[in-house]
Design brief:
mainly beta, 5-stranded antiparallel β-sheet, 4-stranded antiparallel β-sheet, 4% helix, 22% strand, globular
Length: 134
């Protein structure tokens, strides 16, 4: 069995603001951007700040309707969206070697959140990914 890395976001009342994959935090850089040096070194963003391009649900080709983008943030249960179409999202691409940096915030006190990595979709059942969780 091949083990590839996919990033999965657990959607249980949480809003995520993803910044650059593999970037050192630079407080002067604009959110969700790479510096020239990072681009030249081959770093890439997992989230473009505008769309769900590059993300999909477990065992599906599109993202569940509970996910959206609001003000440059990847969010679950965006305002005005009511749906029963829920589930984790994973990156379309697979990664073998990576550094990951992200920012997140809670939508409400007592919420739940998580980021999974080394997700094995073949072992995942239902709408949730099986993998290590941070």
């Amino acid at each position: 069995m091949k083990w590839h890395t996919r990033f999965t976001v657990v959607c249980v009342g949480v809003a995520f603001l993803f910044t650059a994959c593999s970037r050192k935090q630079d407080q002067t850089a604009a959110p969700n951007t790479l510096t020239k040096a990072e681009k030249e070194a081959g770093w890439r963003l997992l989230f473009d700040g505008e769309t769900l391009n590059g993300w999909r649900g477990i065992h599906r080709t599109d993202a569940p309707a509970c996910w959206g983008v609001v003000d440059g943030e990847l969010v679950v249960n965006p305002p005005g969206v009511e749906t029963d179409d829920k589930g984790d999202i994973i990156t379309v691409d697979q990664f073998a070697d990576f550094d990951l940096t992200w920012q997140w915030k809670m939508q409400k006190p007592g919420g739940n959140s998580g980021l999974k990595y080394y997700v094995v979709e073949d072992l995942s059942t239902g709408k949730g990914g099986i993998g290590l969780e941070y």
